[in-house]
Amino acid sequence: MPTDQDTLRELFVTGLRNAHAVEKQALSIMTPQVARLEHYPEVAERLRLHIDETNGQIERLDELLASFETSGSALKDAALSMSGGMAAITHTFAGDEIVKNSFANFAFEHFEIAAYKSLLTLAEDGGFGQAMTPLRQTLDEEQSMARWIDEALPSVTRRYAELYAAGGSSQAKV
C-alpha cells in the first residue's frame, strides 16, 4: 500500500477527475434515454431523478476538486461524454432497446459503485476526511439506482414482451 502522502493525493485527485468524467458520461447516456421512453413511464421517472442526482454528484466532485486546487479534465469529460452518447445511439437501433438499456445501465451503475468504493479507500488512507461524506452520499445514490434497476428489470422485461406481442419490436422499443 502506498503510504507516501503525495502519491495518495495524486491517485485520489486522478480518481476524482475520472469520476467527474464518468458522471458526465452517465448524463450523456441517460438524457437521450429518458427523452425516448414512451411506454415505460416508471423508468423515465427514475432516470429523471437519477439525472438530478448525477448533476448533484458532479457539483460535489467539482467542490472536492476545487479543495485540491484543481478541476475536472475537459478532455476526459468530453471523451467520455462522446462515448456515452454513442453508446446511447447504438441501442436505438436495437429492437429491444429498453432491455439493452436496462442491462447497460445496470452495468454502468456497478462500475460507478466500484469507482466510489475505491475513492473512499483512497480518501481514508490519504486522510482526506472532507471527501468522505460527499463520496458516501454519491455511493449511496449509485447503489440505490442499481437496486432500482435490479428490481425493475423483471417488470420492464415483461412490459417489453407484452408490447412486442401486441405490435412487434417497433412498438416495444421505448
From TrEMBL:
Protein name, entry field: Ferritin-like metal-binding protein YciE
Keywords: Coiled coil
Annotated organism of origin: Sphingomonas endophytica
Transmembrane segments: none
Coiled-coil ranges from the UniProt annotation: 44-71
PANTHER family: PROTEIN YCIF
Pfam families given in the database record: DUF892
InterPro entries listed in its UniProt record: DUF892_YciF-like, Ferritin-like, Ferritin-like_SF, YciF
